[in-house]
Amino acid sequence: MPGITDSTTRDDLSPAGTARENLTTHEAGAPDGRLADEGADGGAGTVRLLDPDGVRHPSPEHDRWLTDVDGDDRALLRLLEDMVVVRRVDTEATALQRQGELALWPPLLGQEAAQIGSAHALRRDDFVFSSYREHGVAYVRGVTPLDLVRGWRGVVTAGWDPYAVNMATPQIIVGGHALHGVGYAMGVLADAEHDTGRADGTAAVVSYFGDGAMSQGAVNEAFVFAATWSAPVVFFCQNNQWAISEPVALQSHVPLVARADGFGLTGVRVDGNDVLAVLAVTRAALHRARTGGGPTLVEAVTYRRGPHTTADDPTRYRGTAEVEAWERRDPIDRLSAYLRDRDVLTDAADAHVRDVADRMAAALRTDLAAIETPPPLSIFEHVYAEPNPALAAERDGYAQYLAGFADDVAGGAR
Amino acid sequence: MTELTLAKAINLGLRRSLADDPSVVLLGEDIGRLGGVFRVTDGLQAEFGPRRVMDTPLAEAGILGAAVGLAYRGYRPVVEIQFDGFVYVAFDQIVSQVARMLARTAGAVRLPITIRIPVGGGTGAAEHHSESPEAYFVHTAGLRVVEVAGPQDAYTVIQQAIACDDPVVFFEPKRRYYTKGEVDTETALADAPPMGAARVVVPGSDVTLVTYGGLVATAVDAATAAADDGVSVEVIDLRSLSPADHDAVAASVRRTGRLVVAHEGPHEAGVGAEIAATATERCFEYLEAAPVRVTGHDIPYPPAKLEMHHVPDLDRILDGVDRVLGRVPSTGAVIA
């Protein structure tokens, strides 16, 4: 099973006495570990530990969340491998859509570090609610590539059992799930008082969404509710600069992270193409959540290099120069350069990582071909948890109708 | 047997559910210290604490969205929407999330959420405080929709709704909140009539009169008045609007041959349309006359001083009975 590395169970890496107040980070200026964003950011500081050339900048404030990773070549390689694999799977899924095997696909190209870095900060008993582009997060949680694409093939509404991987299935309504994360986190808090026998009460939640969702009422209500209860939730906003054709400037005239203050959330802005910085700030945010420090809004500044979905044509709304500028900040190249410089990424290791990714993509293609469309009457299943005679009668009526055809169109209307 | 108001009966039912099942939590605006604007949750926060009876920020989508997350975590949230007209901002959460999470996840995630909504007019209230939005929810697969008419059902059905593994929209007719009635609190929930079953309130043989919620009492009065006039009206309290107990309606219509459906909500595509259409499909050869609907008009809810022209009353229902009996010439015009 891909995904969860040892590091995901080690969120509590902080030295004793970690002061959560030290972790608020979106004040102006560029102290240690924070470099000015290359885009227009209104002066907000952005946490960056690896620059686009792969040069590692020390930052005691953030490095303490990376002591295990910094000292473990395998862990670093694992981050690289996961990014390479999800990009390869993403590319394969795009190809499969072009070949008619998938109805639609929302590519994650360019957002690998934001997703892999943040997902590796999670514990097994944490829970994730996400949008529809978080393939990398799902992969790290243990969702197989096949389950990632099943919904996009149109044979199921969603590809996996949320409780099997502690991650809800993709949410298509933009921002609709942000509140679910808060409610889940409220449940974690309530567990402590309810004697439900669940966990130790320190699970936390991450709700992933994008810059477009920041305008949704549901997301803003989620911020309010999270603050009211100091719910153990992290709002992870991947600001990929575009909501289909709408630039982020249309959603907000201030850096998205600046909204955190007004809601009483801790705000953190991070270079979303720097997997180490993302891992560090997400670990810090989750630690804050678990220890009563309240909710955090992480704005991961990244870029959607592909179309919104395979049905989109980005050439209608943005130029190639912009895309090329972000290609030069590629998250995989960045970590690769760092690891090559440290002799961690050898040619052999690089070949191995790419081989793993290729095999994963090939398996996806094979597995997808074997997927069968469920029988027609399955559409009546799971509408209600308890018996519903009216719907049962409707189902029987449709079964009778199908049975009237000479050919077995019911395909197992049994 | 205890004599209780409808509001107190719900309160008692909520208290029983909270006491019996630690996973039951209540969320809503002003439901804590105040006990709700109608006092339906009176005393519950004091008894069960602020973690189980939660005053929420004033955001209905937030309330429903948080309930989804709590249910994901294994809780049985009971949310209160303060007034019928305030539910629309939560519509997306109810329709796009609550109603279809089970189907979306192929049965993996159950959302046993109860959505309590005071409903209907007749109270002289301000705008947005007298709506009858039930048809929107009946039209949404995955939801169960019920409306209680009196204290006994209020006590029983609220507990059944909370115990149900499906999301239930639970309508409470606000103008009947303070109507008193005898409530049996001893009978076990399992022995009570099922949540989805209609109930014959008044037996009769000439006309079947189907209604629910706040109009049941009016329909009973109409049956009494009709009896004085020599017409035997059978009153059926639908109780569950989704699924509706079409079998019970059909059984009655086959005996009477005449159907009147009454509700406060608008005429067009209202619950009455579904009841009348289904009865016609099932009982066409038994019908002596076309079914008649007595409903609110297809207008925004009118100002309080005019609401008696909108909400069906005793005379409007009796007029419907006359029409289905052919006593009033039917021009085909919609009186509603």
From TrEMBL, chain A:
Top class in the EC scheme: oxidoreductase
Which cofactors does the annotated protein need, by name?
thiamine diphosphate
Q: Which UniProt keywords apply?
A: Oxidoreductase, Pyruvate, Thiamine pyrophosphate
- Which is a Pfam family this sequence falls into? E1_dh
The segment annotated Disordered runs over 1-60
Q: What is its EC number?
A: 1.2.4.4
Annotated transmembrane regions: none
Q: Where does the Dehydrogenase E1 component domain start and stop, copy by copy?
A: 83-355
Comp. bias (Basic and acidic residues): 50-60
Q: Which GO terms describe its molecular function?
A: branched-chain 2-oxo acid dehydrogenase activity; magnesium ion binding
| A GO biological process held by the record | branched-chain amino acid catabolic process
As its record notes, the protein acts as a catalyst of: N(6)-[(R)-lipoyl]-L-lysyl-[protein] + 3-methyl-2-oxobutanoate + H(+) = N(6)-[(R)-S(8)-2-methylpropanoyldihydrolipoyl]-L-lysyl-[protein] + CO2
Q: Keyword Oxidoreductase, does the record have it? A: yes
Q: Would you identify the family this protein belongs to, as annotated?
A: Belongs to the BCKDHA family.
Function (record text): The branched-chain alpha-keto dehydrogenase complex catalyzes the overall conversion of alpha-keto acids to acyl-CoA and CO(2). It contains multiple copies of three enzymatic components: branched-chain alpha-keto acid decarboxylase (E1), lipoamide acyltransferase (E2) and lipoamide dehydrogenase (E3).
Q: Which protein is depicted? A: 2-oxoisovalerate dehydrogenase subunit alpha
From which organism does this entry originate? Luteimicrobium xylanilyticum
Q: Which gene encodes it?
A: pdhA
From TrEMBL, chain B:
Source organism's superkingdom?
A: Bacteria
Name the needed cofactors.
Answer: thiamine diphosphate
Name by which UniProt lists this protein: Pyruvate dehydrogenase (Acetyl-transferring)
Q: Which Pfam families match?
A: Transket_pyr, Transketolase_C
Q: What class of enzyme is it?
A: oxidoreductase
E.C. number, please?
Answer: 1.2.4.1
- PANTHER family from the UniProt entry: PYRUVATE DEHYDROGENASE E1 COMPONENT BETA SUBUNIT, PYRUVATE DEHYDROGENASE E1 COMPONENT SUBUNIT BETA
Q: Sorted alphabetically, which InterPro entries does this protein's record hold?
A: THDP-binding, Transketo_C/PFOR_II, Transketolase-like_Pyr-bd, Transketolase_C
Key words of the record: Oxidoreductase, Pyruvate, Thiamine pyrophosphate
Q: Which Gene3D superfamilies does the UniProt record give? A: 3.40.50.920, 3.40.50.970
Residues of the Transketolase-like pyrimidine-binding domain: 4-179
Molecular-function GO terms, alphabetical:
magnesium ion binding; pyruvate dehydrogenase (acetyl-transferring) activity
